[in-house]
What does this fold into?
Amino acid sequence: MRPVRATASFSTGHGAPNSALWRITGGTLAGLLASIYLPPVADIFRFAPLSSGYLAGAALAGCVGVAWYDAYKLLRPRRSGL
It folds into this structure.
């Protein structure tokens, strides 16, 4: 049996909003940004602020990774009988 998540793309999902996913994602991003850009927290982890170029490059790499996997799921041959 194939999991449903493997067939749905990131942009289309399953049609139903997943509020837990968005809360977890938002909290993770907020914690990451705080650990990088708030000096007292950044000192604990010894992080340095990213330049705008590095931040844009990281965002682009993430988007390319998601797009690549969605394209792979759309273009791969389907197995029958599953």
Summary: The first helix runs from residue 19 to 37. Residues 17-75 form one domain. The CA atoms of residues 38 and 49 lie 9 Å apart. The chain has a mean pLDDT of 85.
